[in-house]
Amino acid sequence: MAITAHCCLRVQNSSIPPITSNGIISHYKHMTIGLILKRSIVFFSFQIPEYCRVLEEGEISDHCFDLIFAFDEIVALGYRENVNLAQIRTFTEMDSHEEKVFRAVRETQEREAKAEMRRKAKELQQIRRDAERSGKKVPAFGGFGSAGMSSMSSGSIITDTIIEPEKPKMGPVPVRPTGSSKALKLGARGKEVDNFVDKLRGEGETIMSSTGKMPSLASNVLPPPVNVESVHMRVEEKISLTCGRDGGLQNMELLGMITLRVTDDKVGRIRLMVNNYDKKGVQLQTHPNVDKKLFTSDSVIGLKNPEKSFPLNNDVGVLKWRLQSTDEALIPLTINCWPSESATGCDVNIEYELQEESLELNDVVIAIPIPSGVGAPVVGDVDGEYKHDSRRNVLEWSLPVIDAKNKSGSLEFSVAGQPNDFFPVNVSFVSIRNYCDIQVAKVTHVEGDAPVKFSLETSFLVDKYEIL
Asked: What's the CATH number for 333-431?
């Protein structure tokens, strides 16, 4: 009894509450609340490094809304949510369905606006043609019978070219004021970009120039002539060809045109003498305002009304032709690709042969696809030069000239892959000689048949040349 009374006296005089059932429950309740609060604070602190790189006031201020959204996922109405860090990250980064719907509606509206714009352009073009046929005065848009013919009567020459909308004129560039500027300056960062671009070029990557034009396999535009006379003509042909890998011409289409440009009104009333030595069966067609009877009988291009002159400072297509065939004998340059499987992959033999010996093809590039991830091919015998573009997975076989003296050649290489991996083979070239033997031999005045000095530009280009 004395010991029990002593213990009770010690308990009453101490700060520890009496050991009762209610005291024990209250004590552990305070401990539990404190532990929960401590864990919540620790969980809050874990969120801060997710959004802030350093624990500074400025960094936290920049990401305050991100932190508030994350904290809102931890505590709701004063109670802690049962979530982890991964769930909070998923909740805060969740896509908005309303935003997706808005973007889809916006894209649909843009497509409809573009379609409406094309429809309006066609309507304006049709209105312009109807006005020209009825003899009304219409604005000049370029082409056959436009700016240079705007002063003519209702019988002016009509063009079928597509009307392009007038480009907006650029306003004057504001002059930057002198003095110190707080704008961003390019220093070492610019050098790093240049070094990065050089590395890409070293790896074979094709880099766009500052003009934004990508270089093609071959230069599809020949340099303009040095001496251009007041009467200048351009004879241009483009070929589109598709062949099978086992032989056979699937389709070949060649389009040609003679374009006339007159820059002096003194030589506007002229006639063109055309030499047509074609034996391949091309279909010729003259412009509607060209005298067809005169061309059929004498191969002379002249206007129906000899009192009128050709438009000045305007490119006029006076004669065009078309050749379409599946005859293999008409293929100008044949390509034969033979991939054969071996123990280590494929041995590929590819060869070319010029069938039209009158042609001289320049800057010929034969592009053979290479399977990705197999490394550079091992090249054996080769006529000309080659380059492996590892980023585009293409082996480019380059030949500066193919003519009657260099009408055939071959390339051999080995690389891992299957025979189907090396197709389609693409070919590109340019030529200063046209495929169909149609040329302008002479230009004369309408009155007196006096000769007129003229300049001539001939080009034969590739639109598509594939071996599938």
From this structure: 2.60.40.1170
